[in-house]
Request: fold
Amino acid sequence: MSQKTVTLNDPATGKNLEFPVREGTLGPDVIDIKSLYGETGAFTYDPGFTSTASCKSSITYIDGDKGVLLYRGYPIEQLAEKSSFLEVSYLLQYGELPTKEELESYQTSITKHNMVNQALKNFFNGFHYDAHPMAMLTAVVGSLSAFYHDSIDINDPESRELCAHRIVAKMPTIAAAAFKHMIGEPFVYPKSNLSYAGNFLNMLFSRPTEPYEINPVAEKALDQLLILHADHEQNASTSTVRLAGSTGTNPFAAIAAGCAALWGPAHGGANEAVLNMLEEIGTVENVPKFIAKAKDKNDPFRLMGFGHRVYKNYDPRATIIRKTCHEVLTELGMSNDPQLELAMRLEEIALKDDYFVERKLYPNVDFYSGIIYRALGIPTEFFTVLFAIGRAPGWVAQWMEMITDPEQRIGRPRQLYVGAPQRDYVPLDQRG
Ligand code: SDX
Reply:
């Protein structure tokens, strides 16, 4: 079958230029414009990359119109119901569901690497108790390369794999240490006999002074939430990890850059912003006022947890989390949680409003997740940290794919220059 192409008529020369069209397994084709600048002297212009594929990938597929999300081809609904976070982490990194032996070996490796160097604990003493936990997480993850020199050789497959395991294994330990620093309690070490989610809950909430029993409802809900956050194609933080990694920097530094990008309220910081928004709205009676603010172009207020660059339908993760939210709050005896009630009324009113319907603004992954986190006893400012723990396997899988892609070069976008034309320096005593 002949190569599909797109023809561009170059007004500068009147020439017709042909660009190859590349087809994927699923989703939109791409027009390969690598030669455009060389042939026309012009760049494409796409701020926010709405129409731009930055890479080819086989990890995650999203169909925004149909609300489809696949990790290595497996629907998120099936993985959320039947898999576990570490199995999904393996799937994202290695491309296939593990055999029993492969999963056990992976789980053993993650458990083996979940401790952090004792010297790393000293960093937390440098933070005030009210430091934002994402500030602590970003800083401490970035410092890991100072300790684990034997896993930063990006050209060595074994080093890459060891680093990937270390990142997945250590994120909860670092996150829990940040939490304990915030509340002034002693750090709790990971235990090798606990599940990934159970270990995290134990490191967050157990104290040396009394026994702590992991609530199985919380453990299961947390594991599912981590699955739902594990990867999401070329979102802002993943693209940041790829761009940072494309310079050849070590993977710990690239993941720290991803943490920094995720922190923004337009991205992973939205789960924290949703709860703050619900607090601000306060009661169902105030919902219409805030809906009006969200629609007002002169008001910077946006309905946090609503809208998505890709999903122009329900975010499938939001549908699953909404269901889990009801189940968890009921099982925890909190089914009449006022925040849940308020969130549901807000969703109901917004989805009947033309402004949101016309713009296809639906609840996204962040709209309900914070309500579950709060029910599990996790403070609002800590929600994005949980998003980062969940996204870590996706970040490392995408980083590894980028590093091993023969087509990949250092990411270096160009620009449309609209600044001053060349001009000569004016001495200070001659300026107006
Ligand atoms: C995540 O990319 C990913 O995959 C991200 C993520 C992942 O898993 O990695 O899914 C995680 O980041 C989810 C999104 C969390 N962010 C929020 O919930 C913050 C609130 N949402 C918005 O800031 C916004 O919807 C974005 C940032 C999510 C998407 O922004 P876009 O694609 O740039 O959309 P846009 O700003 O061009 O909006 C289109 C229109 C605009 O109105 P008009 O100019 O056409 O009149 O919709 C409006 C926007 O003003 N709009 C909103 C809105 N979101 C968009 N209006 C009110 N409230 C909102 N939430």
Q: What stands out?
A: The pocket of s-citryldethia Coenzyme A is lined by residues 48, 232, 235, 266-268, 270, 294, 302-310, 359, 361, 364-366 (CB under 6 Å). Strands lie at 5-9, 16-22, 30-31, 60-63, 68-71, 74-75. The chain has 18 helices and six strands.
